[in-house]
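TA notes, week 10

Several of you asked for a full example with nothing omitted. So below is the full record: structure tokens for the whole chain, then the designed sequence directly under it. When grading your own attempts, check the secondary structure regions first.
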């Protein structure tokens, strides 16, 4: 299944409480270079604010908890009194396999583990590693992680393109927990 440049989600999520109202997934990747603002942004205020969170791409085939949503990174970039917005799904190995299948292929956190259609990451090898929990900056890249100790994914902090997994094995580790702390020293 070909992946378009801008992904749009047309899935009907039904009435699952974690997929409607304030939890309803954002349906498309957006790139808004010049947003109108109420008030004024100081010209010397510059930088990028990144936020990672769950955003389900395909309809779940079983139970669904908001922790099951695919990772979506959001960016607000401030420069010379202007602000731009961009968001993208984090293209994890699991999400790429679901793009190929055209549907969800892993059970959710509240589902029975024997319902999975593919072996995956996560602490028990049956949850999809959706990299939806944390975002840190390291060596000029944004690093997204999953609450169940999955692969860490490197992202371009400006374009938000997924660059691939972070090589932790050469450093003596295999998986990385979310909620890490940055050492400013």
């Amino acid at each position: 299944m070909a992946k378009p440049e801008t992904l749009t989600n047309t899935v009907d999520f039904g009435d699952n409480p974690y997929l409607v109202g304030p939890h309803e997934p954002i349906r498309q990747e957006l790139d808004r270079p010049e947003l109108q603002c109420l008030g004024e942004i100081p010209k010397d205020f510059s930088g990028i604010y990144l936020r990672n969170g769950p955003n389900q791409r395909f309809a779940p085939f079983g139970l669904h908890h908001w922790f099951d949503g695919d990772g979506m990174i959001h960016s607000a970039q401030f420069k010379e009194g202007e602000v731009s917005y961009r968001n993208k799904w984090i293209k994890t190995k699991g999400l790429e396999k679901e793009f190929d299948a055209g549907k969800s292929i892993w059970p959710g956190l509240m589902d029975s583990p024997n319902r999975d259609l593919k072996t995956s990451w996560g602490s028990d090898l049956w949850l999809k590693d959706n990299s939806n929990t944390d975002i840190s900056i390291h060596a000029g890249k944004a690093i997204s992680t999953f609450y169940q100790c999955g692969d860490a994914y490197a992202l371009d902090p400006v374009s938000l393109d997924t660059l691939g997994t972070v090589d932790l094995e050469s450093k003596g580790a295999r998986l990385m927990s979310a909620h890490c702390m940055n050492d400013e020293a």
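The chain has a mean pLDDT of 82. Use that as a sanity check on your answer.
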